[in-house]
Amino acid sequence: MDALVPLAVKLAVNRSQRSCEPIASTLIQASGQQMEESVLRGIKSGLFVIERCLRDILQETRTSPESNNWLLKVRHSDIDDDVANRLIIMVEGMLREIQELQKAFNIEKNPESVRWHVINSLNEISTILSDLTPD
Q1: What residue spans of the chain are helical by DSSP H?
Q2: pTM beyond 0.85
Q3: Using CB atoms within 10 A as the burial measure, which of 54, 60, 70, 75 is most buried?
Q4: Domain around 92
């Protein structure tokens, strides 16, 4: 088993044993005070990255690996069900904490364009194909 899985489970267990409420409550208390825009922007961008990673973990642990097989990649599950269930519980708790912080700091949702993602992917494909094409 990958060394990261036991580490992640250890983090999940440690996290559940020592509540993160003091961290969230400290930030929430700070939200009542005037905060610099740059600090709020940093908190928002950091929470966005954390949320994206947590949602990726949820998708990986809840989805059958065979459903993610590609033409050039075969996925297999190397995380047992017990570990996956503990990860899901940990991730869901962290997402609830992020939601509390979002409310405390009045962080609005950013609109995200599907068109932008499609154009980005097409640009990446075009660049790679261009690099692979003989001159």
Answers
A1: 4-17, 21-31, 37-62, 81-104, 114-132
A2: no
A3: 54
A4: 4-132
